Batch of 4 targets.
Target 1
Amino acid sequence: FFEVPLNETKENGIRLTERKETLGDVTHRILMVPIAQDQLGMYYQQPGQPLATWVVPPGQYFMMGDNRDNSADSRYWGFVPEANLVGKAVAIWMSFDKQEGEWPTGVRLSRIGGIH
C-alpha cells in the first residue's frame, strides 16, 4: 500500500490510502479509508501467498462481490470450484444510491435489468 501523507485529505476531510491494481492492461487507482485495512486479518490466507494476495488455481474462481469493500466474497471464504457454478449473472436486480456511512437514498432504476 502507498500511504497518503497525513496532511492530504479528500474534500470531505477523510484521510485515505491509495493503492493501484492492474487487471489486464488497465491500472486502477483505489482509495481506501485507512481503518478498513485493519480488517485484512479476516481475509482468507492462501497458503504460500502474502496476506491479501491471491493466485487463483486452475479450475477455481475468485468471486468478487458487487459492493467491493463491503462484500463478503472470496477474499473471506476462498475460491469456488468450477463444479460448484450453477448459473450465470444475467441481470442486476437492485441498485441503490448510497453514500459511505449513510442509508440508501433511492433506487437507481436505470441499472435494474442490465449488466454493466
Note: Residues 80 and 86 are 11 Å apart (CA to CA).
Target 2
Amino acid sequence: MTKQKFFLQGLLLTGVSLFLRVTNMGYRSYLSGQLGAAGMGLYQLIFSIFALTVTLSTSGISLAVTRMVSAAIASGRPQRIRSVAARCLLFCLTISLSIALLLFFLADPAAALFLGEPKAAPCLRVLGLGLPFMSLCTCMKGYFLAVDESLSTAWSDALEQVLTIAATVFFFWRFAPQSMEAACLGAMAASTLGEAASFLSSWAAFRRSLGRNIPACREKSPGVLQGLAHIALPCTLSSAARSLLNTGENLLIPRELQRYGLPRGEALSQYGLLQGMAMPLLYFPSSFLSSFASLLIPKVARERELSHRKAVAHIAGKAVGWTLLFSYFFAAAFSLSGASWGAVFYGSPSSGAYVRLLAPLVPLLYLDVVVDSLLKAMDEQFNSMKYNFSDSLIRVVLVLCLLRFFGMESYVAILFFSTIFNASLSLGRLIRVTSLRLSLLRQVVFPLAAAWASAAAAHSLLRCVGADTALPSLLLELALGGALYLPALWLASPGRGNPLARLFPKQRRT
C-alpha cells in the first residue's frame, strides 16, 4: 500500500468511524432518556455478559486472518488466500454456533445468578442469535484489512448502526415498553437485526473481492489450523480471560456498592453513569486513531515478514508520537469542559463530572489502542495477553477489597492505577521489540503544555464573550482550541524548524 493510499483509506475510515461514534453517542443519549440511569446500568450489565460470548466467538480471528493472508501476499502465493479464508470461515461458524447454543440454554440461570433479573433472560437469547453473524463478519474483516479493502467493512458497520438505531426508535415509538427488561429486549433485538444486515453486506463484498482480486485456482494452504492456534488462540485466551474478569468486575460493582450502603437502583445508576455514559464519551475521539491503527496491522506484519526492522521502528515511532499529540489536546479539553459535554449528550451533569475526573487518563487510553495493534502485528499477542489478564485480575481484586468500604471514589482510583499499569507494560514491551526511542521533553512535556495552553485559552475566551454550554459552543471551543494548538506547539518547541517534525523526527528505513 502506498503512503497516499494508506492516508486516503485512513481518512475515509476515520470519516466512517466518526459517523459511527457520533450516531452511537446519539443512540446512547436516546437510550438514557428512555431507560434512565438505572436502565442504562442494566443494559450495560446485560452487554457485559454477552461480551464474554462475543469474545469467545470472535477474538483473535480477524488478526489471524489478516496475518495469514498478508503472509500469502508477501510470499507471492495469492492462490492460497481462498483456502485460508474458507477454513477460517468454517472455524468461525462452528465455534459461534456452539457458543450461541450454550447462551440460549444457560440464559435463565445467567440472568438470575449474575444479573439478579430473571426477566432479562430473553435479552441474552436474542443477542445470542447474532453471534454467528458477528463471528463471520470478524473473519471477513481480517481478509479485507489484508487486501487493503477495509472500506467494505466500514460500510457494513455503518449499515448495521443505522438499522439498529432505526429499529430501536421504531420499537419504542410503536410499543412504548413499560419495564426496563422489555425496553432492553427491544434494544437487543434491534442490535441482532443490525448484525444480520451487516453480515449480508460483508458477504456480498467478500464474494466480489474474491472474484476480482484472487486467482480462481485454489492452492491448499498448509498450516491454517496451526496459524489459528498460534495467532488466534493466545488472543482468544487473553480476551476470554479478560472478558470474564471484566464481566465479573461489572457485575461486582453494583453489588459492592450495595454493600457500601447504596440502594440497588442508586448502585445501578452510579455504574451506568460511569461505564454506560462517561467512558464512551471519553473514548469518542479515539475513532480518529482506531481507523489508522487497524490499517497498521497488515502494514507492520508485511514489514516484519520481510525483516525490515528499521521500517517497523519507523512506523511504530510515528504511530506513538501522533497518538500522544492527538490525545493531549482531548485530555485538556475534557478536563476543562467535561461537565458540559455530559450535560449536552446525556442531560446528566453527573456523568460529565466523571468525564472531567477521568480526563487525565485519555492519553494512556488512546495509546493503548495503537500500541495493542502494533504488538499484535509483531507477533507479540502472547505478551499482550499477559498484560491484559494481569490488569483485569488486579482490578477485580481491588474492586472486591475497596468498593464496599470507599464506594465509587475507590473505583475511580482503581481505574487510574489499572490504566497506568497496563499502558506502562505495553509501551515498555513495544520499546523493547522495536528499539523505539521516546523523548520526555519533545513527546510529553512540550506538547502537553501546548495542549493545555491552547484548550484553556479557547475555553476562557468563549466564557469571556458569554458563550453558553450548548453543543455548538462546545464544538466551537474544540475548533478554536485546535487552531491554537499548532502555533502553541511551535512556541513550546525550542530551536528552529517545523515543530511537528522536531517532535516526531524521521527515522531511517531499510
Note: Residues 1-237+287-306 form one domain.
Target 3
Amino acid sequence: MQRYTVIDMDGHVNEPFEMWEKYLDPNFHEHRPRLVRTDDGVDAIAFAGGVHVPANNGIGLPGTGLVGRKVGPRTMYEYRFADGHPGGFEPQARLKAMNEDGIDIGVLFPTLSAVMIAANPWEAMAVAMARAYNNWIADFCRSAPGRLYGAAQVPLLHVDAAVAEARRAVTDLGLKVIYVRPNPYGGRMWTDPIYDPFWQCVEELGVPLGFHEGTFPKVMPTAGADRFENFFFQHIVSHPFEQQLACLSFLAGGILERFPRLQVIFLEAGCGWLPYWLARMDGHYEQIGWMVPEITRKPSEYFRRQCFISLDPDEHDVPHVVDIVGADRIVFASDFPHYDAIFPGAVAAVRDRDDLSHEAKRLILGENAARLLGLRSPAQGAGTPFAPAPGHPVR
C-alpha cells in the first residue's frame, strides 16, 4: 500500500464551554456562551440574551461531535454535547484519531464559536471572544508542535479590529490560516473596498484565507434560508452556494487583481461545482467582460494562480476537477469530528481510489497544503511529517 504524507486542511474542534471561563477577558464573563439544558432535555447554547439549539432538527448540538455514529430524529434528546468524540475536545485524543486515520498534520477550525464571533455587532465582545479562542487554539496546538495547527478567528464586522487580531494571531501565536465565513458580514459584499486593509494584511502575513460555511441562517444571511425552513434543504444549499458566491466576488470583483499574493481556500463545500462555476464566469467574461473592469484576465486564471478548494473524501467528481482545474489546486479535508464526516477511513477514501494518479494523490493529500502552510516537503512518498520551511517556525 502506498503511504502518503497527509495534511487535513479542515478538521474541527468542539470548543469546551469551560474554555470561555479560562480564556475570556473577565470583564466579559457575564456575557460568555454557556451550555444549558432546555425544558425538554436538549443541550443548547445560552448567548446574547437567547437560548439557541444549533441544527434544531433532531441532531442538535451533539451532532457536532458524533462522527462515526448514525444520527436520527431523536439524536439531540439521546446524546449530550459532551458525548462527542474526545478528539474534538482534547489534543492527545485528537492525535490518536489522526493516527488511526493516517493523518500526519491537522489544521483545526472552530465549530460553535464561529458564528458568535463573525456575527457579533458588539465590537468589544467580538474582539474579546476572538482573542480568547485564538489563545485557546494556540495552546491546544502547542500540545503537538508540528502536527496541529490552528485557524484564527477575527471579528470581521469590525475591520480595523480584525486586522489587529489577524496580525497578533499569526505573528504572536503562530496560527496558520485566517478563518472567514463566506456569508456577507453586516450586509457588505466582499468587493466593498472597506475590506481592502484586511486583504492587504492577510496577504502581508503570508497565510491563506480560509472560507468555511456553516448553516446558521438565524444569525447570518445564508443562501437558500429565505426559501427553506427544513435543515435538510438549508444544509444542502448553504455550503456550496455561499462558497460559489464568495468565489465569484473574489475572482470577478477585482480582489485578487489588487492583491496578487493573497491565497484563498474554499472549504467544506465539495469541489464538483468548481469546473462549471469557472466555465460560467469565463463565458461571461468573454461576452460581457467590459462590465467588470476591475479584472484583467479570465476568472479561472485568478483561481489557478491564487486559490484552492477542498474535496469531500468520497466525492465522485474529483477526477473531473483534476482534469479541468488541476490536482495542484485541491486539498484534503476530513471535517472530523462532525456527524457527517467519515471516520475512520477519510484518508483511505482518497488513497485507495483507482481513478486518481499517484501524483494527484500526493498533491491532494499533502503537498498542496504544505505549500499553503509554508511547510517543507519530505522526500516524495516518504509518509513522514512535513518540516517547517525557513521563516515558518513550528509553535
Note: The first strand starts at residue 7 and ends at 12.
Target 4
Amino acid sequence: MAFPLIFILVFGFIGNSGGVRVHIAVDNTSDTLNAIYKILDNNPAVKLYADSDSEIYRALKKGDLDAIVHIEKKDSGYVVKVATSDIAVQNGQLFKGIVKQIISEMNLRAMPNIALPFSLEDQPVIHGREYKTIDFILPGQLGFSLLSTGVFGTAFVFLNLRQTLVIKRFFATPIKRPFIVLGEAMSRIIFGLIGASFILTLGHFAFGFTMIHGIATFLTMMSLCAIGLIIFMGFGFVVSGLAKNESAVPPLANLITLPQFLLSGTFFSITNFPDWLQPICKLLPLTFLNDAMRKVSFEGAGFIDIWKDLGALGIWGIIVYALATKLFRWE
C-alpha cells in the first residue's frame, strides 16, 4: 500500500500544480520596485526565477525559460523589454500577451490623457539549440540506473556474503577486511560503468542524445557515473547493515530509491512540483547527479563548472559513509 500511495501523491502534486504557467526571469539590472514587477510576481500564470544573468540567458537558450524581462525606468516612464527564444515560441508569445494586457490596463487606469507611463519594447529573438526530450530523459534514467545498482546490488551482495558465511571464511585468509569491501566495490563500479557506457552509446547513436564535445563529454560523464556509483553504494552498505534477512532489503532499499526516482527530475523537471516541495527535491543526491550530467552533456560543462553539484554529492558521500561505518556488520 505504501508505494502506490507515494505514486498517487507525487502525480497528484504534479496534476494540482496549476494550469499553464510561463517560466520567466527578471535580469539583475532591472528596476524591481515598480508596479509591473509586483503584478508579475503575484500573477498565478507566471513563475518567476532568480539567478545570475549568465545562467538565465543559458536557460532561455535551452528552453528552460520562456522569456527574460528587463524593466528600465526612464524620464517618460517605464520601458519593459522582453527577450524570448526560438525554442519556446508559444510560451514566449503568451507571456508577451500577458505583459501587453498589464501595461494597457495600467496606462488606462493611471494616466489616460497624457504620455503613457509604461511601454513594451520587443527584443530580437535569441537563437537556442533544441533541447530534445532524450537530452532530458537519458541522464535521469542513467542516474536512476546507477542508484539502483549501487543500493540494491551492494545491499544484496553483502547481506548474502554475511548469511552464507563467506565473509567469515575470508577472515581465515590473509586478506584484510578493507580489501574485501574494496574488491566487491570495484566489481560493482566496473559493471555499473559498462552498463552506463552502453546506455550513453545507444542514446547518442540511436536517438541523437547530445554529447556536445564528443568523446571528451563521454569521458566526463563516465567519471560522474563513477562518483555517483560510489556514493550510492554507501546507501547499499547502510541497507545491508539494517536488513536482518533478504526479504527486508527491498522495502529498505525502496525507501531510499523511490523518492529519488520520483522527485529528482528523472522523467520530468522538478519545477512541475509545488513550490514548497521543490527545495526538498533539490537536496536529493540523485538531483545533483542528474543536473550535473545534463550540464555536461548539453552545455559542455566541465568539472569546474559543476563544482556545486560535486560539492553537494561529496557532502552526501561523507554523511552516508559515516552512517554506513556505524551500521555495517561483518557477521
Note: The radius of gyration is 25 Å.
